[in-house]
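Input for the complex:
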Amino acid sequence: MSLQNEEMDVVLKIKRYSPEKGYWWQEYKLKVDRFTQFTEALRRIKSEQDPTLAYRASCHMAVCGSCGMKINGEPRLACKTLVIDMAKKYGSNVITIEPMDYFKPVKDLIVDLDEFYQRMYKVKPRLYPHKEVLEGNVEQRLKPEDQRELWKFAQCIWCGLCVSACPSVKMDPEFLGPAAHAKGYRFLADPRDTITEERMKILIDSAWRCTYCYMCYNVCPRDIEPVTAIKKTRAYTRLAKEKTSVAQTGEKHIEAIFNSLVESGKLEEAKVYLSTYGLLGSIKDFIYLFQSGKVKYALVKEKPVENISEVRKILSGDNK
Ligand code: SF4
Ligand code: SF4
Ligand code: FES
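Predicted:
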């Protein structure tokens, strides 16, 4: 049989939910072909086997952002994922489907996205152009190089997958989350926008709350790299007139890392930690290190790397 005609019997094990019954798993058997997306499989289950199954999907082409769910534990767009591909990837024709993590369940695979939209609205996700532009008196064109900078971050389809996968969102109520940062940076870096100061106030403190775990980078179905938007937003900190203590600590941390690399070519964690938080700020963690017998690791004195002058040249930008 050619690849095009490939078929497979699969079992979709779906984590269902209703406010009355709570969670339960239900299995559905069906035959899929090479081109069956998960949204198509769900549509067939709903129309041929079980009309009570609830899920969201609209465009079936990775544009509307409504079909985010966990497939074999991976946050994915159901319409952009082929059933056969997942069966092959995991070497099993039994595949689990669950609602996205973090968001409140509504019914089966449908979650409540209100909280996600509130995050997005907090970053004022639209352009605020000059008055003359609004009145139609002048035209303000975007230069190609500016367009290139913004393009990636403008492609967000508000699917929520990155937020569902982000550990910092779960831990820190002050963190806006990856999608809001991608959207926020898209307007922060737009030279036509007029509320840069306000945007910096909204975004900078939050940007320093990301832990750089890269989950958002891994799961985004549009390759938007929200973590890159966060890094770029952090670079605006030096322009901010007012800085929160979180942003100030973030700046100190970056400076401490830079100094450590200049000095030894290595990241000396204990030294970086002390320079960032100071002796008093570090005491609590040192007590923990002491109690857990790990203090000896913190006190390791790193030898500078052999070619330290090369490292310093790179760090000074003189690496031609
Ligand atoms: S890199 Fe930052 S924003 Fe992205 S998932 Fe990790 S903590 Fe969240
Ligand atoms: S950044 Fe990517 S994963 Fe996050 S909401 Fe936008 S499209 Fe979805
Ligand atoms: S159905 Fe629109 S993104 Fe999947």
